[in-house]
Design a protein that fits this description.
The chain is α/β, with parallel strands linked by helices. Helices cover about 25% and strands about 20% of the residues. The chain binds iron/sulfur cluster.
């Protein structure tokens, strides 16, 4: 069975590590979905399949993504969570994600992450890399991500990450499409229910 699954690309390394990102069906198939949470999850997991997922400081971090605020991707209980939205810029709709930090779930209970920033979809890998670099360089020994976020504080982290939320005056074509798509992003909600 393992050999057959491997042939279909279903035996990738990093299960239950940083690269093993949770996401909902998102706008690809969900009538309520705004952004392609699966497209973003694929882009991010590729970023971490270079061995970063095995980094002892990072391997237990969780990233979870929902394609709209409805939380089916469980973004609210992730170390780093995202939910999709859109923003009108210069007559174009841009896919965006609101980023939450410091959520968790465990035997001792759950805490919701706090919203910190809204970022264009195409800048998410860059903002995640910056955040992980900050964590690695500033964390104390054995300090969990959530504890790091609370110690450094949301305001200081926001200042460091805010440049990633900005859009250039002239939008590059890349910002106009969502992950996994080449055509321009259009908000297209349908009739029906959540697909999760
Ligand atoms: S309704 Fe649920 S499954 Fe659909 S995009 Fe929103 S969070 Fe994802």
């Amino acid at each position: 069975m393992y050999r057959e699954l491997s042939k279909s690309g279903l035996a990738l390394p990093s299960a239950e590590r940083l690269a093993d990102i949770t996401c909902c069906p998102g706008g690809d198939t969900c009538q309520l979905g705004i952004t392609s949470s699966r497209g973003l999850a694929t882009a991010l997991s590729k970023l971490f399949r270079n061995g970063r997922s095995q980094d002892a400081d990072l391997k237990d971090l969780t990233i979870k993504i929902s394609g709209c605020p409805n939380s089916c991707g469980q973004h609210h209980i992730a170390d780093i969570g995202f939910y999709g939205g859109s923003k009108l810029v210069g007559g174009h709709q841009i896919p965006t994600y609101t980023m939450l930090l410091g959520g968790r779930i465990g035997a001792e209970g759950a805490d919701y992450g706090k919203q910190i920033l809204r970022v264009p979809a195409k800048k998410i890998p860059a903002v995640v890399e910056k955040l992980l670099d900050l964590y690695k360089s500033q964390k104390k020994e054995n300090e969990k991500f959530r504890d790091f976020v609370n110690r450094v504080g949301f305001e200081d982290l926001k200042k460091s990450l805010e440049p990633y939320s900005a859009l250039p005056d002239t939008l590059a074509k890349d910002f106009l499409s969502d992950w996994g798509y080449e055509n321009e992003f259009k908000l297209a909600l349908g009739k029906g229910e959540c697909a999760a």
